[in-house]
Amino acid sequence: MAYSFEKLPDPFDRSAAPASTPKSTLRTRLLFAALLCPLLLLSSIPLHSIWSLWPGSSSRGVGSTWRTAENPYLQKQWKESLGRCSQLHVLPGVPADFHKRKESDRFVPSTPPTLIRNATIWTGEDTGNELLLGHDILLDRGLIISLGKNLSAPKGADVVQAHGAWLTPGIFDMHSHIGVDSLPELSGANDVNSVANPILPHLRSLDGINTHDLAFKRTVSGGVTTSLVLPGSANNIGGQAFAIKLRPTKEKTPESLVLEMPYNVPTPGIERKEGDPPRWRHMKMACGENIRRVYKQTRLDLAYNFRSGFTSAAALRDSQDAFCAQAELAQKKGEILEERFPDDLQWEALVDVLRGKVKVNTHCYEATDLAAFVRYTNEFKFPVAAFHHAHEAYLVPDLLKQAWNSTPAVALFATQARYKRESWRGSDYAPQKLAEQNITVIMKSDHPVLDSRFLLFEAQQAHHFGLSTNLALRSIITSSASVAGFSHRLGYLRPNYDADVVLWDSHPLKLGATPRQVYIDGIKQIENPFEAKPLETGVEAPEVASKPEFPICEEELDDGSEEREREVIDSVLFTGVREVLLEGEWEARGEMEGEFEVLVQEGRIECVGECAALVGEETRKVELKGGSLLPPLTAYGPALGLTEMISEKSTTDNPVYDPLYSGELSTTQQLWGQVVAVKAIDGLEFGGKHLRISHDQGFLKAVVAPMGNGFFRGVSVAFRTGAKHVLQPDALVKEAVALHVTIGHYKGTQTPSISTEIAELRRLLLGGLEKDTSTMVKADYFALAAHGTIPLVINAWKADVIGTLIRLKGEIEREPNSTAPLRWVIHGGQEAHLLAHELAAADISVVLSPPRAFPESWDERRAVAGPPLSPRNAPNILHNAGVRFGLGVPEEWQARTLLWEAAWAWRDSNGEVDRKSAVAWVSTNLDDMLELPKNGAAEFVAYERDPFEFGSRAVAVSTTDGKQVELIA
């Protein structure tokens, strides 16, 4: 008889057993049991796999059926199998009653309603009516209840007067490793990658999320409310990703952060409603160089890895389909199948990829890899949600459109490029070019590669380089949430959507825009936020920067043969000038009212004001549109001129050998004795992309020390970024600038103890004091530093280390034969703000790098956050304490953004810093603390529009000899 599910048989009911059992069968079963029991004890074979071996039972293969209810376990298995089959082809979606919900599934009952009045609301829509002026928004029960004018406040509501401030949905970071690559970086909490195998679809980022990550609170303070936490890119398939809200929960567990838990992850307290479609799953895949490096493979191997994995998953998928076809027939006959629904933990997630139930996010940079992955999608018939990084995607838009089923989105950095071969052809204009091809553009952080707190900065830069206002905002809010599969609840300000909103202090695309408050699930996230500047309520976004005729990007040939010579002239009249912030006789001109003219002839400023009468026929006119003339900017910190692609050894000068780290201190006599042999000048390479891009943004000088993370670094050089080679006249500003050492843990690398490093520095400096300056060897740099003849630059981050260095400086200066004062500079200084007054008293300068606090390592964990989490940022604390300081950056691609960093810190100063001082942080302050010689001519950079805002760019600079003007057309 057919089995009925209404009543399960009792396995202990003897009435269900046959009337009698033959003795021969009984003896056989007893013997079989005696032999089988030890085997079961020593093995992990499931009992159901042994069932068919039992004497007297039928031997059945895959797809065989049972007509009687012989085993209740089999009945339960059959019911589960039918359930799996019924969901086999159901695609993820939104429950039918989702938008009828009365409260969010994440609602915290104690949360009061919030009514925000009179806001400039950007809704996320793409209809041309996305901006609502002077509107209110009501948040309650974790949801957006309504938008409109003059809304009524519910009883007990928190009423917030926005005064016209911008309000947007919360930012959705499409590519983050927050929680799995947590801050500060510690070996015990780095769970971003596994290197067990190139194909690991079964791994889950959820299992490694550290809820104590220092980045959570800081990231929320930048307006980010949700992050898609991806495994890293060490593998072809790194595993499954999970979207999490960044609001702290009372449970303090990773599960409580997950936005929508996929049904394959059993979670207490979450029940699936009958008829609801499955949730989206997410998976991280990767192409190219990372996997090649980790597994010592070529792209040919990587292609096989992918195909092998997809083939295994396809085989499992096909066996599932075959089983379910047999199950359907058996069910019609009132029978059940003996076999379990075919499954495999290793491949089940990849099977869902092939079934279209997973949002695939693929780290893939260049055309070669993009083309290969598009082939995989068509060969195995699965869609891709987004290609990430994808520096060459803008070169092959038609290729992307050939991906199976739909065109993937492209998730990009704004300006981070050229750090490896795959990113060599990256373009600042990629977001604009992709958008012109109707390809969805997403800006992402790859936290902690970029601090996800400042993901907005990526969208701002994309807009600066041409992406429209609406698409720039959508790229971090709406497009990212939609591509990730959450457009039913995130990315828009609509009734019944999650109450994740950000109230800004200015237009979100304006440089330095900062949240006044962030709400997640209707809950206020920043207690007592600090506001660094007056509220700005302008509706218009900043200008898009004009595009040079020949931007430095992919169009150039790699051998430089297509490099264009810039026009150089003797006489130029700048019109539409609003500001001159140069030193010398023209420094007061920054206070002039309205626009004026500046005439430059043969490298000298001859007139400021009304200059038309002095203009000759040969004079070129350049309209600055309310722009400025600033001193040449100085790039300090990155290895400009020493590397092109930092991951390619053949393009990089490579780190300095460190005898202190190796334990071979005798080697110091060879490298660090009377003559220091390691000088950055000996490794310089001119004409690279990093240098030319920095030069075109006004960084006419660079100071670079030999590369390395060890105690011993060497002697830095100052040079002109626009020079063609080291023998060119005026290419070098100063051959030997400063002596460099490092004291600290070097962000996780194995090092000697700090006390050992301090002891070695003390020994070398005291030894240098014993030398007679009148007979001193010119290149005895430790002696020169000990006598204060040359600056000593010390890489240090931690306040405790900086405090010890302050004591050491005083100790050296108190020596009887000291020629104090010594000239010391702290480079890094993330915790220098804790000793700002002590540094000023000790006359120690600081190069703050990076300018915006980022607690990446244990030595930097107390880096001050700045507004809205603290009233002041590090630049302003140092400035107010009287510390002479400048701003630097860690990586080569960042040099060109330093002026924006200075302007950002200036905006956050609450009026305590003037513009000239902010410019000095990236120009004259650095020159003074490193004692760089000044050119007799009035060197300058001319900026179109306000250089303290997006939309500005350098259009003219002094030539290397300071006697002419180079136009950046």
From TrEMBL:
Q: Start and end of every Amidohydrolase-related domain? A: 167-514
In terms of domain of life, where is this protein from?
Eukaryota
| A GO term, aspect molecular function | allantoinase activity
Name a biological process GO annotation.
purine nucleobase catabolic process
Pfam families attached here?
Amidohydro_1
Q: Where are the transmembrane segments?
A: 30-54
Q: Name one GO cellular component term.
A: cytoplasm
User: Which UniProt keywords are given for this protein, alphabetically ordered?
Assistant: Membrane, Transmembrane, Transmembrane helix
- Family matches, as InterPro entries: Amidohydro-rel, DHOase/Allantoinase_Hydrolase, Metal-dep_hydrolase_composite, Metal_Hydrolase
**What PANTHER family does this protein map onto?**
ALLANTOINASE, AMIDOHYDROLASE 3 DOMAIN-CONTAINING PROTEIN
Q: What is this protein called?
A: Amidohydrolase-related domain-containing protein
Question: Taxonomic lineage per UniProt?
Answer: Eukaryota, Fungi, Dikarya, Basidiomycota, Pucciniomycotina
